[in-house]
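Q: How would the structure tokens look for this protein?
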Amino acid sequence: MKKIAKVLGIVLAILLIICMAIGITGYIAFDSMLKDMTAEFIVQKDISLVVLKDSPLLAMKDVKDTDIVGMQNVCFQDSVELMTEEMEKETGFVNLQKEYESLSAMISGLYSEDVPIAILDEAYREIVELEYPEFTSETRVIFTIQYKQEQTSFAKQTEVSKDTFTVLISGIDTYGEIKNISRSDVNILAVVNPSDAKILLISIPRDYYVPIYSGINSIGRTDGKMDKLTHTGLFGPECTVRTLEVLFDVPINYYVRVNFTSVVDIVDSIGGVTVNSDYAFDDFVVGENIFDGKRALEFSRERYQFKDGDRQRGKNQMKVIEAIVAKLTSPSAGYDYVQLFQAVKGCVQMNFTEEEVKALIQYQIEHMPAWSVETTSVNGSDARDYSYYGGQELYVMYPDQATVDAAKASIKEYLE
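A: Here is the predicted structure in token form.
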């Protein structure tokens, strides 16, 4: 499977390999890291008022009570409500609003000057730029607020050192703090059987065109609207979990969430990695390349220069994380575990409890099982179709039901 290393490099390294260093570095450093990674989940959104670049509105103080504000509730109703409240506090009046049926329609309304201002949840900026590539240079932000919300736990807890359990591994396409909401670009479902030391890994393409399902923390809109799997990340991990629970007809116990900063910081903390490239592109060469964190990320993200696009990107991501795993597991590797703790600390989130992670650690230390890993992936066919939450036609992948059914059968076999 093309993205197996995502799990092995992040989850296995964090939950199993790093744990082996406790005797060397001391329990306190690890315990501190673990508290951060398993803390209560908080999502963070940046919400902006956007105007055209040549607009006379330079700041909130320039907004008049006659200015109509463009908004749409399909994607970010809570963001609209918060910005409306903040605008009233700042100006002393409530502006009229024009609701659009989609994000795409709202941005079109801004460009056509149907409205002079639009409320934008910044997590959607890259979706807007798929239709309007120059959107950022052609517009300005005149006001921004930051919204933080604590999420209720939705873990389905079990005895992780004995019972077979499922974990969604979600890789989000953002830098900085892990709590920032963003698309879920890497999605792997892991089925872990600790008793038999077996792991099943199922890779699901980011562009899988599936019905989207919400939850107690998520969008709360009509379930079953069709969109790309990657867009579920915009509503937090619970939306991705619920959507995949429906797709595979299986409960998902936990999730682990990582971001792009994870790759940069982890590679730098272990002194870089050596990766073999299948193709020459930019200044990467065919064969051996030595990467620091920044270079490893650049190599992992590129897709437009390859005929196979996202599929080749998946292969390259695998190569990078395989290199991370190889270095982490090498007995001759001389890197600073404390630095590695710090690298992981701010860019990984999970809804395992501290006690559950420690139980896994204890199991690994006491039994030192030789884990066997079975890998598979679901596939599909390339197409273009309507993105409900993007409000426009986008590239998607129609699921191949035969591969989905095969994955469901494998999951059932592991769980029985």
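The longest strand covers residues 139-150.

The chain has a mean pLDDT of 80.

Upvote if useful.
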